[in-house]
Amino acid sequence: MKHSKRSVHRPQFISGSELPIPTLEILRADGSLYEGAEEPELSRDLAVRIYRTMIFTRILDERMTSAQRQGRLSFYLTCAGEEAAVAGSVAAFDPGDMIMGQYREQAALRFRGFSARQFMTQLLSTRNDLGKGRQMPVHYGTRELNFMTISSPLATQIPQAAGYAYGQRLDAGKAGGGASHCTLCYYGDGAASEGDFHAGMNMAAVLKCPVVFFCRNNGYAISTPTAEQYAGDGIASRGVGYGMQTIRVDGNDLLAVYAASVAARRIAVESFEPVLIEAMSYRLGAHSTSDDPSGYRSREEEDRWREMDPIARMRLWLYARDWWSEGEEKAALESYRGEVLSELKAEEKEPKPPLAALVEDVYDTPPWHLREQIEALSEHVRRHAEHYPAGKGV
Ligand SMILES: Cc1ncc(C[n+]2csc(CCOP(=O)(O)OP(=O)(O)O)c2C)c(N)n1
Q1: CA atoms of 92 and 111, how far apart (whole Å)
Q2: Secondary-structure class of domain 20-30+38-348 per CATH
């Protein structure tokens, strides 16, 4: 039994609100440091790489949202507003650590080296897509970069991350040392309401799995604000409940996110323990291209958060240190806009994967019902050939 005993002799209820979990804040919105704040060790090269990742992601999101409006892709989800939370956390991990994401963490992929072209292959489902066009847009995955393919059903990645990390723990045991690698699991405040969240958290805590559960608390689960999502002290209080080392950070503060993530990774690999980080942020954009947030939140609220933009905040910090200049900013923005547009145009010319790829890879020999479906689909394509132009791979 882990809990230590403390007796009382009259009924005494405990209310979480008596113990609000503090928020780590290092960088102010104007780019200066809070008094007494401890800046994490961060080299110029790494800081600039993180910042470049953040601005690339913002541009990718803007361009792909427009491309969806132009009918060039079917669906898209932005990371806008949460770039510091994602880029600042992934930067604290080793490239060999596994990432289990939700769907809004494209900055993590970019940081690890996913190219603009690779984003396009997945978003457009071309024959070059690593997933062979079988997933909705934004369901990225790459074995090479240790990024597990995204699953649409919310929170499935949480118990999977616990299981994967348990494997990392067993591997480390065989090698006879500390864990060399851990798992970084991203999820949203809405996903934390799923049963899978609780199953995964408890499993990781009891089995001592080296996993960092990184909650992007962006205020909404589609149209449901967090005030209607939970009654406790955010998501962080649940980490404490499961017996995990837990920290809450300002998710728009790159330095706070990075400092907490470096420390969390160390705990995970050195002590074989799960850690929970709750990054408080805001989803600046719509939930997805299928959503219109004007139906459930005000323009004033959005504007208030825009003033706390994590990108502007980090840029001011970089400027103050002379690590980045207006000239570099302009050149980087231009080059990323050009890169995203030219890769989009180039990949649009690529054919789709062959139809048969739909049923390959899972079974050694596709079973009869899948073969039947492929035959029916091929027949449909033949019959309506005018809608399936030659050269598009079908
Ligand atoms: C099991 C399940 N239920 C519902 C959905 C529909 N759905 C997709 S995203 C989403 C909201 C998730 O919110 P959150 O976890 O806070 O992440 P965010 O989108 O804010 O990043 C919902 C309800 C789903 N994909 N899976």
Answers
A1: 11
A2: alpha beta
